[in-house]
Design a protein that fits this description.
Elements (H helix, E strand, L loop, with lengths): L18 H11 L5 E6 L12 E6 L10 E2 L1
Parallel strand pairs: 1-2
Antiparallel strand pairs: 2-3
InterPro entries: Prot_inh_pot1, Prot_inh_pot1_sf
GO molecular function, one term: serine-type endopeptidase inhibitor activity
Pfam families: potato_inhibit
Amino acid sequence: MASECEGKSSWPELVGVQGEVAAETIKRENPHITTVDILLEGTIVTQDFYCTRVRVWVDENGIVISVPTIG
């Protein structure tokens, strides 16, 4: 589904950085993104898909643990 969305759709280079830094980078690199959720690993979320959203999964130290992608 990400292929249907406009702009950059994944950010593998952000794994290992602070979640807040990742969120700002994502917003800067794809202006179509309106929501960047920073979520603690294990948080329960809905399975719906939005081209305007990226979920950034972080550990207890706020470090990105998986590749942020549109969805």
